[in-house]
Amino acid sequence: MSFAGVSHLTFARKDFQAQVPDWFPMDKDVVVLASGVVEVALGAAMLTLPQRRAAVGVALAAFYAAIFPGNISQYAERHDAFGLDTDTKRLVRLFGQPALIAAALSAAGFPRRGSRR
User: Fold this and answer.
1) Which of 58, 64, 80, 113 shows the greatest Cβ crowding within 10 Å of its Cβ?
2) What DSSP character marks residue 29?
3) What is the pLDDT of residues 95-112, one digit of tens each?
């Protein structure tokens, strides 16, 4: 997470801008920079606040869900970035986002092991 956040702020800014939907009402660079700061913060929190792992994991999952429209937009608007230069590659990438959400929730301890419903 922290590495991805730093890449938002530095060498991959243009690629991340391709994931900001054209219809989104903010400057693409501002969105990329802001999301980079959030990613750095969440990554740092995951590493340094083990006692808050559940809350940070849920926040990370929510962040991944919030940016998912950008992945959909990249596919729908056919923006090339990160080597995703075909419709097939962009479509396959869409399946990675739910996996990231699941990984964040798993890191947060969900589903709770041994709990009954």
Assistant:
1) 64
2) H
3) 999 999 999 999 899 887
Evaluate whether 29 touches 41 at the Cβ level (below 8 Å): no
Q: What is the pTM of this model?
A: 0.87
Instruction: Write out the residue range of the structural domain in which residue 34 sits.
Output: 2-107
Domain total for the chain?
1
Contact status, residue 50 vs residue 56, Cβ threshold 8 Å: no
With 0-12 / 13-18 / 19 or more C-beta atoms within 10 angstroms meaning exposed / middle / buried, residue 87 is exposed
